[in-house]
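Q: I'm a student working through a structural biology exercise. My instructor gave each of us a protein and asked us to get a predicted structure, then write a short paragraph describing it. Mine is Winged helix DNA-binding domain-containing protein. I'm not confident about reading structure output yet, so if you can add a plain explanation after the tokens, that would really help. Here is the sequence I was given:
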Amino acid sequence: MSPLEAVRHLVGLQAQAPNPPYIGLWSRLADFALADLADLLSSRQVVRLALMRSTIHLVDSRDAEPLRGLLAPVLVRGFRATVGRAFDDVDHDEVAAVGAGIVAEEPLTAAELGRRLAVRWPNHEPDRLAALVRTQVGLVQVPPRGLWGSSGQAKHTTLAAWLPETNAAAMSPDTVIRRYLAAFGPATPADAQMWSGLTGLREVFERQADLVTFRDEADRVLYDLPEAPRPDPDTPAPVRLVAAFDNLILSHADRSRVIADEHRKPVIMGTGNGNVRPTVLVDGVVVGMWGTQRTKRTAVLTITPLAKISAKDRRAIEPEARRLLAVTDPDADTVEIHYA
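A: Happy to help. First, here is the predicted structure for Winged helix DNA-binding domain-containing protein. I'll explain a few features afterward.
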């Protein structure tokens, strides 16, 4: 696949931080260069905005408005859970319209937008006013945010201003479920709900008569597309260094298919602020976490094991780690692979 085809196939990559989508594509694609994704962002072929689970995702621009329309209730529900009844005295549509007009003229950070809105609605916290606009309006994070190596602030404008020719209807639940299964199946309705934030998906699965079904070890029904590839169970899965926040780790209610329950806390819960650490896969299962550090002339990749890693597996991990550092730190004189 090309990088754009991969972004579309995955229905986007989770992207709270700017760099993980680059590693997410590098870990999946042959001959991927960091500039490939940076060029897609600069040319507006991919965009960054709040979608699944109300989190920032990087998606194909053709998917942005249709997904935003489908997932609008998820964002509203998340906002309501945060503010309770605090905004019942405010016309949400009016705040959204004013905020959309402001950022359509000039991309702003959430803090800047909140301060401007607070002039008109002084009885409400600026950050929550900005969050209300994000809930009601598709707001794109514009470059240089999201470009590899850039430290640009997250400034926002509207989807309509950034992609003026986009005028697509909301994606149907049936369509998004089939695309989810193409990327992450076989899966249960609960898995798809965990990935998307949508509810009531069991009926959507059950009304698609062509889906094939299986039973997992817990006797749950797993659905899949009839034409989906299903390799022999003994097919080896190569070592992979998985990006932070990668949807591979987050896209199932039953995450034990990828990460053991006892390893979830240090990877998913132990970092604060909803962070998800980058992980090491051996035979398709998380066995450790990884991180990089750069001194003036040396790039170091450190692996923190969560389970015993055999000498054979370490020999398979090291060239993959060196391959990654060759992409992320091409100017380093030396590279080192350490185990914590």
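A: Here are two points you could use in your paragraph. Residues 54 and 75 are 5 Å apart (CA to CA). The longest helix spans residues 61-83. It's a good idea to check both against the output above yourself.
Q: Great, thank you!
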